[in-house]
Amino acid sequence: MSVTTTRIAAVDTYDIRFPTSRELDGSDAMNPDPDYSAAYVVLRTSAGGHEGHGFTFTIGRGNDVQVAAIDALRDHVVGRPVAELCADPGSLYRDLTGDSQLRWLGPEKGVMHMAIGAVVNAVWDLAAKREGKPLWQLLADADPAWLVSQIDFRHIGDALTPGEALELLRQGKEGAADRASRLLLRGYPAYTTGPGWLGYSDEKLVRLAREAVADGFTQIKLKVGADLADDIRRCRTARETVGPDIRIAIDANQRWDIAEAIEWTKALAEFDPYWIEEPTSPDDILGHAAIRSGVHPIKVATGEHVQNRIVFKQLLQAEAIDFLQLDATRVGGVNENLAVLLLAAKFGVPVCPHAGGVGLCELVQHLSMFDFVALSGSTEGRAIEFADHLHEHFVDPARIHGGRYRTPTAPGFSATMHRAAIDTYRYPDGAFWAADLAATGTKERA
């Protein structure tokens, strides 16, 4: 079978879960016992060879629902010519978001939209592998007009037109080759959430904070929002540990109402927090604007749970955030994140992506690196979140050196998991979970 007739032959899905709740990795005020999970998808082709890998991130129960949502998209994908699909991923993005009966479940938000993101990201992974380039480079090398064609400007045209997007991308081409060389040499700034999970003891916080500074990180992040006295103690401990020159961000994971967010953040102001992240509902644009005004000069960051480009648009229009924290798997994949990156560039707001989770570091590094090379042209005030767990399950894991992400060079979106990891942590019949359920004698979900 010739390459020109190669088609998507199968869409394989997996419910993959890791028992992170047992060590309280990932714990925060709203999510005290997460089991980091991935609804994982593999696009297989009729000719074999390259596969497209993608996923969306969840925290345990409900991952089966997310997998079912991906399965519901299968008929849109199987049978598509691979060459045409990779030449225009936007064609599939538009078909998936335009399925009216599935769209009704959003529209363009929630489980269905995250499923679309997983499939679309798998297409971009396949396209980058076929081109022999890491995704950041595929995007940076792309013709600006083609990138604009990949974006849905519906509902954001009042803030960003196709013409404005084209001009931003054309400007981004200036000096791009030099920035790509610097990126390969120096990597991209990172900060770490590793010391700050809410369930960790003070002793573990201190140990990990010291290690973070020794490893070259200039910013750490602490989870807050469950108990003010505990937060004061932990912030004081962290500040005494890292000294005055290391930035400490704090993250409430949507725990507060507006007045409470302002009052609580001000109570922590003596510890010089750099930003307060997700202080309230991710859907409350005016609430974020009020908090930003109320806690100044402490900055406000949000975005990991923002459901689509339209909400990001409104956060920017309302001047509600100082940092935009896009997520690689929350919205409709690379196509919609291109829109979000362009909106941030238009409004001059730095992008500091959400990562951690399962594979989020692996994916989002590509988006930030593209932004630096071929859009914003800057790393000023920008850093990608890093959490030091679960990377060993990926074929091309995120790598950190001296507090900076090393630039991926392998073709693809860094989304491919080792087969052994899939076979071990597939729920409920993977080797780990089968043994765990047999040992506990229960059918409880992870």
From TrEMBL:
Keyword set, alphabetical order: Lyase, Magnesium, Metal-binding
Domain Mandelate racemase/muconate lactonizing enzyme C-terminal span(s) in chain numbering: 202-298
Keyword Signal among record annotations: no
Membrane-spanning parts: none
Listed cofactors: Mg(2+)
Reaction catalyzed: L-fuconate = 2-dehydro-3-deoxy-L-fuconate + H2O
E.C. code: 4.2.1.68
Heme found in the keyword field: no
PANTHER family: ENOLASE SUPERFAMILY, MANDELATE RACEMASE, MITOCHONDRIAL ENOLASE SUPERFAMILY MEMBER 1
Descriptive protein name: L-fuconate dehydratase
Organism listed in the record: Kitasatospora aburaviensis
Source lineage: Bacteria, Bacillati, Actinomycetota, Actinomycetes, Kitasatosporales
